[in-house]
alpha-1,2-Mannosidase (Pomatorhinus ruficollis), 412 residues
Amino acid sequence: AFQTPTGMPYGTVNLLHGVNPGETPVTCTAGIGTFIVEFATLSHLTGDPVFEDVARKALKALWKNRSDIGLVGNHIDVITAKWVAQDAGIGAGVDSYFEYLVKGAILLQDKELMSMFLEYNKAIKNYTKFDDWYLWVQMYKGTVSMPVFQSLEAYWPGLQSLIGDVDNAMRTFLNYYTVWKQFGGLPEFYNIPQGYTVDKREGYPLRPELIESAMYLYRATRDPTLLELGRDAVESIEKISKVDCGFATIKDLRDHRLDNRMESFFLAETIKYLYLLFDPDNFIHNDGSDFDVVVTPYGECVLSAGGYIFNTEAHPIDPAALHCCRKRREEQWEVEDLMREFYSQKKTKKFTLKRAPDRGEGENAKDPEDASSEKAGEKRNSKKISHSLLSCPSQSFNSKLAVLGQVFLDNT
């Protein structure tokens, strides 16, 4: 999918046959910019950099093609890099691109990703923000094209809380909450000047975004208003949408008619964020006082200390796992490991997991960051030591397969 002149991926790829010859080259911005969290995780855990590399290239291509006033549009041609839909905003078609710049920056401790988002944030405030609402504007001129609020935009206050902009986040959240109270849910589109739903966009498929923001903001502020939203959401969903086989999409919030479907994100996100909003002691909220110390071939490291990053479908990723498995001075170790495993296999038919000591260091020498993590851990009350179930890469993924004689061919 990523093999395009721009590095931006096609929207759809057939996993058996590749990109369909008739596939459209037009992809939405979110479809291009929502890979770095999962793909960087995959690269760190396998040792194969290709996943993170293509995700970064796609992010940088969007950044390169932003407008002179710092905005990105809704859909772009991945072959020519020409913007096909030039509406700029924070909602559908764009939303998770901004989300992943922030979450990718936090997960990977990446200043470049965060600086990209902060530049976008300035442009968004300058051109799309009006009275703590965010409108849609023309990406080159900044003129308003749609004065609407989309329910998908309700993730934004939660994202603002992640960068510490809590005051602005709360003001915007309260605007969105007034819409919830008006209808018992968030319509897909809400006309801000008219204060009512938009024709043919009156439905509420039990989306999670407003509850997601409430969860993040409650962790930051402990404001009871956020628990009130959670209570309202539970009561509304229970009373309006519960049916024999699940919870149905609300087809029209004006009369609460139901549709015969239940979206997967209701289970993956909506009720998960509600649960976490009301469960202060959940392991996801761990502040670092409880953690596991795991033994790896290259020393000890810390896992499960908190700071989990949710991907856009609310699946948590432990950043410590990436830190634990990241490639440390790989260039130096790779030849050593390959030679050691080769001779070990030749002599004993077994593999050794020990690494030769670094120059001037002991055999179990640790990365300075790992050492500081352990010192901090010694001061805490709860600490478990176990052997890691992670298979941290000692060399690149392809090299490892070759060494073990497990080279997979295309026809395997």
In short: Residues 149-280 form one domain. The first strand starts at residue 26 and ends at 28. The longest helix spans residues 330-348.
